[in-house]
Design brief:
Length: 168
């Protein structure tokens, strides 16, 4: 856990709000991932504090159960919503007003959430929805709506997002 906290802090140098948010996320994640165990019950006050501070006051909805690789970078962390079933790889770079979530099923239940690969850069005001995969080293342009898989090393933009460039 400490390794993850230090790598997150290194990628977010100078941004105290995000460093605090991610450190609290990593600590709270240790409790949240152990559902209904004794450790989970001891962590309830910490999980409540995390939700009140990070989600309600700081406006970063990064649920404690979300699987996030080390080195997460968040710029201008405001209006950020990440579904707890989403998976983010290592060194993902997120910008403000981004939503990563599921599609609602016909019966009202949550469908699968996105898998974001390693070293992915996501622009502001981006929406990524559903059972999709964003490949390693992909770049998602600001304001994009991503509802289909994105190949590795690809730049996508638009609504719906379309590939405009392959990276080397």
């Amino acid at each position: 856990m400490l390794n993850y906290i230090f790598q997150d802090a290194s990628r977010n140098k100078g941004n105290i709000k995000i460093i605090l948010t991610l450190a609290l996320f990593r600590i709270t994640h240790c409790f949240a991932k152990r559902k209904r165990s004794l450790l989970w019950y001891f962590g309830i006050p910490i999980m409540i504090f995390y939700r009140l501070l990070v989600e309600d006051l700081l406006c970063v909805e990064l649920r404690a159960a979300t699987k996030v690789g080390k080195g997460l970078k968040i710029e201008h962390g405001f209006a950020l919503v990440i579904n707890d079933q989403s998976i983010l790889g290592k060194n993902v770079h997120l910008r403000h007003s981004t939503t990563i979530g599921c599609k609602m099923m016909d019966d009202g239940s949550q469908g699968p959430s996105p898998y974001i690969g390693n070293n992915v850069e996501i622009g502001s005001n981006t929406v990524i929805l559903g059972d999709i995969r964003i490949g390693d080293n992909a770049k998602i342009g600001a304001g994009s709506v991503v509802i289909h898989d994105v190949e590795p090393n690809t730049v996508v933009v638009g609504n719906p997002a379309k590939a405009i460039k392959r990276l080397k």
